[in-house]
Amino acid sequence: MRDIDHIKDLRKMAKAIGNDTATISEKVLGLPEFKTWSACVGNKHHYGKGGLKQHVWEVVTLCMKNRIFFESIGTKISERELFLSALFHDVGKIYDYKPSDKYMSQWESTEHKRKIHHISKSGVLWVKAVTETGLCKDIEDDVLHAILSHHGLREWGSPVAPKSRVSWLLHLCDGLSARMDDCERSDVLDRKPK
User: Fold this and answer.
1) What is the pLDDT of residues 41-50, one digit of tens each?
2) Are 179 and 45 in contact, with CB atoms under 8 Å apart?
């Protein structure tokens, strides 16, 4: 994979959308943990140091490129809503995982994951960002819906199912990024249901 400064690239995308988007994006991009955190534990997608930022960058990039395609065939999708939904969708993983106390360079789940889970926490962090900045109130619920539905089904951890173009596109791009990262090192048939 080519060397990419994921944070710099995400900031550039946010700025191109507008100052409000760039400002509220810093609630994720400015977190020190976002730069170093793992996206999962075990032999799952984007495991290890920096995996979270790579996964989020991939999801944002996939969403934005697919938005351009759909716009070219006449399907309107809000750029700002899609970008912010993709950016915030997994930020709650900072609370779900932590570096292992037992083994260096390994990650483990936290009690937060069992009790709250990253989907709910990501939604809370989005609402908090809107409240603290006073920005994006017009799309607050739309972005929240996309975040809460990004796993697609309740049995996969989403409290609601996708009901908008943005939420469906986020769900599909999230899965694409995850499966492309873990397809050669895990067997979906060996996984236990969530």
Assistant:
1) 987 899 999 9
2) yes
